[in-house]
Structure formats: structure tokens, C-alpha cells
Hints:
This protein is of the alpha+beta class. It is built from 6 helices and 7 strands. Helix 2 (44-50) runs antiparallel to helix 4 (74-88) and helix 3 (52-65) packs across helix 4 (74-88).
Amino acid sequence: MEPKYIWMDGSLVEYEKATVHFMTPALHYGVGVFEGIAVMPPTAARQCSDYRSTWSGWSTRPRYWGFRELPYTADQLAEATKLTISANGFGGCYIRPLIYLGGEKLGLILDNGVPKVGIAAIEWPDYLGPEAMEKGVRATVSSFTRHHLNVTMTKAKIHRQLCQQRARQDRSGAAGL
């Protein structure tokens, strides 16, 4: 089921209206930090409070990327997540918080932009399908190698890190795997 609402910068926004401007620096330079959290039914909203350490850790990761000031505390993000899950009527779901460099001025100087925050909650059925646990899956070994630890940011999930993963996934799909 598609979510009805996304939490963006302090309020719930209808799914169709949860957009960013084309000139948003994050789209051009990949400046953003995200996380993925699985929340199990039936107590999804309550579990977000229990993730205090997760939110505390996650809210410090944008600082590794260079964001000095963040607009929300870990407690505020936990409350926003509960609100998002509740507004969408989800039991179990996948939470995708995202902090990205916003604004309409291009450039890599973070102080010239504005940190923006969004939280999506989506229903996410078995990623590989219900038969994966029973029958297994076909897979392949990628020809790509992982970057050395000193080549990129390793303390946070940043946008650019997923480029290799996307390429591997696309090649696997093209190979029928």
C-alpha cells in the first residue's frame, strides 16, 4: 500500500505533494544521509520510542558528512516517525529517514544550503518475494569491488555509496538473476 503521508521538515505532507525543487543541491551532488529501519507489527508506533539509541546515533551521522546544525533532535525524529506511521495506518513497515542539503543555490558548501529532513514509512513485503525463504534465490558475485575504507565516508549511509550497489543490482537483473 502506498503511503498517504510523508513527514517533511516538521509536518505531514500528502504523498503526492512531498517533493523537492529541481535545483536542490542534494540532487546534483548527492549530499544526503539516510537510514533504513524495519518496524515489526503490531506495535510499530511504540517501537519508535524504543529506538532512542538508533535515533541518537542516526542524528549524529550527518555531522560526519559536514552538516553542523541539524533542525531536529533524536526525540523529535522519534515522535515524527510515530506520527508518520500512525497517519499512514501501518502496523509493520520500513522507515526511511533522510537528511539532505536543500535550498535552491547550487554548490558544495554546506553552510550555503539548508539541511532538510524527511521521514517516509512504507509497507514493505518480503523483499525477495514470499517464496525466497522456501525455494531460495538465484544470485551472482559482482565484478565490482568495495571501496577501501579510507576512500569514502564509512560512518554513515550517504547517497553516493549506493551507486555501486545500484550498478550491481542492475547487472544482476539484466543477467536474469
